[in-house]
Design goal:
The chain has helices at 5-14, 30-38, 52-55, and strands at 21-25, 43-47, 62-63. The chain has 85 residues and is of the alpha/beta class. The protein has one domain. Strand 1 (21-25), helix 2 and strand 2 (43-47) form a beta-alpha-beta unit. It is globular and about 30 Å long.
Length: 85
C-alpha cells in the first residue's frame, strides 16, 4: 500500500540493473513512466498502447501496462489477456 503511484513504482525502478530496458505505453500517467525516465542508466522505450503487447521482447526487464490511460474516455483500454507473466 502506498499513497502515490510513484512511491510504489520507485522501489521497483531502484531495483533494476543499469542498462535494463523498460517498455512503457505512450500517454501513460507520468507517475508511472517518470521513475524509469529519471534513472539515466535505464533504457526506456515508449510505444503506442495498442502495440504494447506486440513490442515486448525477451530482453525487456520491465513492462508497464495500464488498464487505462489518462487520455480520457476515447482512450483505448489495454487488453490484459495478452499479458505474459
Amino acid at each position: 500500500m502506498g499513497n502515490t503511484v510513484a512511491s510504489l513504482i520507485g522501489p521497483i525502478t531502484a531495483g533494476l540493473l543499469p542498462g535494463a530496458e523498460t517498455l512503457v505505453a505512450e500517454g501513460d500517467f507520468a507517475s508511472v513512466t517518470n521513475p524509469f525516465r529519471y534513472r539515466e542508466d535505464l533504457a526506456v522505450r515508449t510505444v503506442p498502447l495498442e502495440r504494447l503487447a506486440q513490442e515486448v521482447r525477451p530482453d525487456h526487464h520491465m513492462e508497464t501496462r495500464p488498464p487505462a490511460t489518462s487520455g480520457g474516455l476515447d482512450d483505448p483500454v489495454s487488453d490484459q489477456s495478452s499479458r505474459r507473466m
